[in-house]
Amino acid sequence: MGRFTIEEMREMAKTIFLKAVSAVDPYQRLKTIARIDRNRLIIEENGTSQKVFNLSDFERVYLVGTGKASSSMAQAIEEIFGNRITKGLITTKYGHGLPLKYTEIIEAGHPLPDLKGLEGARKIKDLLKMTGPRDLVIFLISGGGSALLPLPVDGITLEEKQELTQLLLDCGADIKEINTIRKHISQIKGGWLARWAFPSTVITFILSDVVGDPLDVIASGPTVPDTSTFQDVWEILKKYSLINEIAISIRDHLQAGREGKKEETPKAGEDVFEKVHNMVIGSNIIALRAAEKEFSSAGFNTMILSSSIIGETKEAARFHGAIAREVASTGIPLNRPACILSGGETTVTIRGSGKGGRNQEFALAGAFEINGLEKAVLLSGGTDGTDGPTDAAGAIADHTTLIRASQKGLNPVKSLENNDSYPFFKRLDDLLITGPTRTNVMDVRMVLID
Amino acid sequence: MGRFTIEEMREMAKTIFLKAVSAVDPYQRLKTIARIDRNRLIIEENGTSQKVFNLSDFERVYLVGTGKASSSMAQAIEEIFGNRITKGLITTKYGHGLPLKYTEIIEAGHPLPDLKGLEGARKIKDLLKMTGPRDLVIFLISGGGSALLPLPVDGITLEEKQELTQLLLDCGADIKEINTIRKHISQIKGGWLARWAFPSTVITFILSDVVGDPLDVIASGPTVPDTSTFQDVWEILKKYSLINEIAISIRDHLQAGREGKKEETPKAGEDVFEKVHNMVIGSNIIALRAAEKEFSSAGFNTMILSSSIIGETKEAARFHGAIAREVASTGIPLNRPACILSGGETTVTIRGSGKGGRNQEFALAGAFEINGLEKAVLLSGGTDGTDGPTDAAGAIADHTTLIRASQKGLNPVKSLENNDSYPFFKRLDDLLITGPTRTNVMDVRMVLID
After folding, report:
1. Among A177, A359, B2, B202, which residue has the fewest nearby CB atoms (within 10 Å)?
2. Domains in chain B: boundaries
């Protein structure tokens, strides 16, 4: 019974996943929301004019950027601005460069920063320091931007900085504490990049790969005011008894900062940010909204649960399963055919030696949850097309997955226990394979119940 | 900003929690849905007539039952049927008896069954065996009914049965496997009670304390067809290598069953169930719906997420937090003022030595999730009025909880790590105290965002 066949539902899930990913393609997004009309830069979305910049106000236009998607973002800006671009420089991950006309590309190390990244960061800083009040800086940020634009303060080496991060991780410091310290030994993070670009006008286009899209966290917020101080840094070092463990160069710098002998990170309300415009152009919720629209058109009662689902993957699957079963049994919160969407990024506590990723594990754990329902499909995929160390973006499961698995002699309980979801879904031909997508706004999950 | 003050929201959460609990008071529920009119028993809900029984068809009416709420349920039936009741017998937990006019009460051991429960079960079986085709049996089931109505097959002692359960738990058998075996060594569970009442008419009123309200699981389904077989039992014993570990009496019985020398549990389609009517009169979703109605009237955009939330408590708090933050930042899935409701029963993996319960732990973990939101309240409570080994039903948290805690010198991180939520909320005067409620449909959680 129901409106759709299981094959239709599976096909729809896969197709709409790809559409959701397209909706956050940063190249497409920039081309959609930004255009130049009669020498004015218009940035608008959904017909609502957001911002207009008169280009005749500017003498020069600089294009800078960093992140794994920075070259396709730069392509869009080059197409929009054409030869208005005075000079451009971006850093991206090795192998991620694309042909650009006005912009130099420096490919660098990720996730571990290297000297190429350092070179790119230094060049960008030098470029920005030369800008004046009648210049426009377009700054492009995407995931990986933190590692791909490393520039410790003078006297501190990349290695010393990395050792510090490792020390902090080892003693259980949380990501907020780690970022507080990193921003205070960087010349880029924590608003510093805006500081160098001052007094020019800065438009930062951001592709968010962080839950909740906190601007000061994405790529460590190079053009965003910092809220922490050298004093906070000192408290953290004391808390974890690290003052005598860290490199002397770092300790001297932080000590000097604490004594007011070093400039603080730029703060909200300072002149630095007066002409800075930070704009999120792609994020998980945008992908979810695109999927919501598609499923609604297809006749599904559709609801976005949250774009911020984090936590242990198996538990997340339980939660989605609880909602799916409620839909199936009582029509709450949606009547069938129903579609529940969620986003964010869960974690997997590895207990086995298998091969998989958080999305495939979600689909496998979810297969137990929807087993026994009349008709249900579940899809989980990484919007970057990569799930864990596999060539799949995720996987698709339905209410027949466990039965089909047992017919093929697979043991889903053992596969799950061993974090071995990849071979499981490969055998069922239920992997979700997209190839690299040139974007990343974390994961998209769908549960369909008919 | 917002429509409500934080005090109003807190007050509303507490008041509506009590209303949700009232909505599943089994005495009230029975009085609402069942009545006798011109010698007909009418069972209806929301004005939709569900079932009508002509009482002149019956010679005798028997009232039997088991569970922690059986005496208040029996009170309602006595008030409805009056002296039409020929004979009555219920079992309940020590201290849970209430005055009854036509019905004998046997108080017995719970959660560990004892000889009093055995006595009650034997008497009920004997009573039912005497019933004929023109008799009506009203059977009342509530939480605890499994332990309070124990009757192993002849030759197996209560102790042997309990040892078996422990063995199964120790080797990691799941609840479904344990129930499969228990039903095959019982004279009550797995439809046996319906077997003894055959060929009378049986109306079973069920107060559900199990996620998803599976009739064959609540009190082990005494009037519900069983789907498992002696062969299934044998497979489970083999799977866990228990055949030579279990008591000889049990092994002999199960072996005989497997060889077809013992009667199977009653199955769907058999005559036994032809005149059996199982009706859930109270369940988690009913409580949630009552709360939904109240919050909607009060002006909140309200959504029931699921009545089946299980899993680790802290993880459940994360999901609710993810949804709350999405509501706060994007108005998805609901615009503010918004109310998200959920039910079910989570678990707590104990790592500390503190005092608390799953609801208080949910509120404590949730306090971190809603910290920083503009205005948010979170309540979690056990509908039976008891959360873990405490005198509280649960607790209430809001966006100021962590700040207020630090002002009082409390350490919420340590309290959570130590599973020590009770003293934490006691100190903040944020415990939810209701006293015993005479009902139990698991937990109700509310997240309010304005």
Report:
1. B2
2. 6-20+285-449, 25-151+186-228+265-282
* Percent of all residues in chain B with a pLDDT value above 70, rounded to a whole number: 99
Q: At how many degrees (to 10) do helices A230-239 and A248-258 cross?
A: 130
Cα A204-A205-A210 angle, rounded to 5 deg = 110
Q: Which amino acid is at B254?
A: L
Q: How far is CA B90 from CA A134, B70, B96, B120, B224, in A?
A: 87, 7, 11, 7, 19
Predicted TM-score of the model (pTM): 0.88
Q: Are B309 and A322 in contact (CB under 8 A)?
A: yes
Cα–Cα distance list, B260 to B151, B184, B235, B264, B265 (Å): 21, 13, 16, 8, 12
Check whether the bond before B99 is cis (ω within 30° of 0): no
Nearest residue on chain B to A344, judged by CA atoms?
B322
pLDDT confidence of A2, banded at 50, 70, 90? confident
**Whole-angstrom Cα distance, residue A142 to residue A408?**
42
Closest CA to A296 of A288, A306, A307, A286: A288
3-state SS assignment for residue B312 = strand
CB-nearest partner of B325 from A212, A326, A330? A212
For A390-414, letters b (16+ CB in 10 Å) and e give bebbbbbbbbbbbebbeeeebebee
Asked whether the beta carbons of residue B307 and residue A326 sit closer than 8 angstroms, the reply is: yes
DSSP states of B350-397: --S-----HHHHHHHHHHHHHTTSSSEEEEEEETTS--SSSS-SEEEE
Candidates B306, B339, B442: best to mutate against A (most CBs of A within 10 A) is: B306
Give the gap in angstroms from C-alpha B225 to the nearest C-alpha of chain A.
18
Which residue of A318, A334, A347, A443 to mutate against B (max B Cβ within 10 Å)?
Answer: A318
Tokens of B350: 């104990």
**Half-sphere exposure for B376 (CA within 13 Å, toward CB):** 28
The length of chain A in residues reads: 450
**Residues in chain B closer than 8 A to A304 (CB atoms):** 326, 332-333
| B116: closest CA of chain A, how far (Å) | 38
Contact assessment for residue B279 and residue B28, using Cβ atoms and an 8 Å cutoff:
no
Query: Given an 8 Å threshold on Cβ–Cβ distance, is B306 in contact with A332?
Result: yes
Helices and strands (H and E) in chain A: how many: 15, 15
ipTM score here? Answer: 0.82
Which residue on chain B is closest to A308 by alpha carbon? B322
**C-beta atoms of A333 and B305 within 8 A:** yes
Q: How far apart are CA B234 and CA B243, in angstroms?
A: 8
CATH topology of domain B6-20+285-449: glycerate kinase, domain 1 (3.40.1480)
The CATH number that domain A25-151+186-228+265-282 falls under is 3.40.50.10180
Q: Listing from the earlier edge strand, what are the strands of the sheet with B394-398?
A: B301-309, B338-344, B443-449, B376-382, B394-398, B431-432
Q: Tell me, what's the pLDDT at A1?
A: 58
Distance of alpha carbon A152 from the chain centroid: 23
Inter-chain CB proximity B307 and A319 less than 8 Å:
no
Residue among B208, B313, B332, B369 with most chain A CBs within 10 A, to mutate? B332
pLDDT digits (tens, 9 = 90+) for A126-151: 999 999 999 999 999 999 999 999 99
Dump pLDDT digits (tens) for B356-403: 999 999 999 999 999 999 999 999 999 999 999 999 999 999 999 999
Which residues on chain A are in Cβ contact (under 8 Å) with B319? Answer: 306, 309, 311, 315-316, 319
